[in-house]
Amino acid sequence: AHGNVLLSRGGAVATITLSHPGKLNALTVAMWLTLRRVLDDLSDDDTLRCVLLRGADGNFAAGADISEFPEQRGDLDSLLHYHDAILAPALQAVAQCKHPTVAAIQGVCVGGGLEIAAHCDLRIAAHSSRLGVPIHRLGFPMAPGEMQGVLALAGRAVTLELLLEGRLLGADEAYAKGLLTRVVDDHAWSAEVQRCVDRIVGGAPLAARINKDMVRRLSPEVAPLTDAERRACFAYWNSSDHLEGVSAFLAGRKPVFTGQ
To answer: Torsions phi, psi of 200, nearest 5?
Structure first.
């Protein structure tokens, strides 16, 4: 089964569904590229009032598809390309969508899935969903273009907790820590997602877009990283711990890290 980013349209609402059967909707490179293209196209459509992002089959998304890592991130140049030219622009497209965006979260919402949700305007989660960034077991840190949105949403302490412990949070804890807009009982979740979308659609679209523009403009922007700083973020690429983390994950065993 291949991964897909599906687009459907109902009235003034566009629904983007992340779908990768059997892989908890893990995002392939093709899916990241499609997500970016779909969002750029939707931003140009002034008949829209809301974009809903969701996952197929009871989960939001389990992050990037790690089975692609040996091929897609095999050396430093391809690693930089993967994070800077594929993932970061897709997340930017989520963040810069002209229309209000709602992440409808159920099941697993981790890694790149959490990054996508963090870049949406609102996050409505089912009570049983689980959120986190368990990449420390893969032997690599979060790339700067992905960290920015999580840090802006959750702040320093929560971002570091997610990254250093790699623990998955239940929805209530994630809500208490600012990662979620609302948590709803599983049986009432889809109805609440629909009510949220209806409230947005019932508002003036021009006002919504101006609010989004102003929030972005009035939010503090950090100076862009220099090339040397950016490369320093990826200095782990040929470490034995990184190779060990990815190969252990793909083999389904526990990694043994040495700090090398």
So the answer is: -65, -45
The model's pTM = 0.97
**Rounded Cα gap, residues 205 and 66, in angstroms:** 39
Tokens linked to 204: 């003036």
- Closest listed residue to residue 59, CA positions, set 20, 21, 101, 109: 109
Residue found under tokens 């006002």: 207
Tens digit of each residue's pLDDT (9 = 90 or more) over 181-234: 999 999 999 999 999 999 999 999 999 999 999 999 999 889 999 999 999 999
List strand residue ranges (DSSP E) for 81-140, in order.
101-105, 108-110, 122-126, 130-132
Contact 54, 8 (CB under 8 A): no
Are the C-beta atoms of 142 and 121 separated by less than 8 Å? no
Question: Contact 60/54 with Cβ under 8 angstroms?
Answer: yes
- CA gap 197, 191 in Å, rounded: 10
Give the tokens for residue 207: 């006002």
Please count the helices (runs of H) and the strands (runs of E) in the chain: 11, 9
Which amino acid is residue 145, in one-letter code?
G
Q: Which of 76, 94, 67, 104 is nearest to 194 (CA)?
A: 104
What amino acid occupies position 193? Answer: V
Q: For residue 1, what pLDDT is reported?
A: 63
Residue 133 CA to residue 109 CA, distance in Å, equals 9
Distance (Å, rounded) from C-alpha 233 to C-alpha 127? 35
